[in-house]
Amino acid sequence: MNKRVIILSLLMSGLLGVYFYFTVSADKHVEKIDIKSTKENVLNEIVQAREYSESTSKWMDSNEELNDSGYFNPVHAHNENEEEDTKREAINYFLTGILQNEVNIFMSAFHVQSISEDLFIKEEQDKEKVVEDIIKSISREGRIKDIHYENVKGLHNSNTNEANLTLVYEDNKKAIINLKFQELKDSHTEHEKGVQVITTSTWDMIEQIENSTK
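RE: above sequence
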């Protein structure tokens, strides 16, 4: 074979390799989640939301003409130039619920229909116990030591309704769980970003974890 042809073939192979490397890398948005700060931030948010709700309810009670609206909403600081990954909030509540073994925080990350269907798969009447068992299964009895988050991107780096979590346990076993989301919007704030909630079945998550950690 002509030397020129060989050299050109090698160059083309190298360029293709570089192209695919950077293409795949560009679609990967993986970050290690700081477990401690994530828990603290979520717990602080819950306290602030409770305080806001209580103070606003008192204010509305003293302004009875507003009560008929049946609506109030906290003011959130938002940078219009910042592209926010709205899935992260649901992920943070999901993880905090698991790490703190808090049933209500865990459930708040899910679409109501999805988590309800999961709970009623079990005949156990105490649904709080069902959630506790789900949390234990995902955490493998509280043995999560590291978490990595990947915001799954689509073609041309477009947003999708998916994310991957890599859970690393104390025995160094790893499990990747794929999560799907749905955006819920308040009818009063239809032009603003909605709230993302998880629609993936917890039983599917547990199956993925068990298959990866056998």
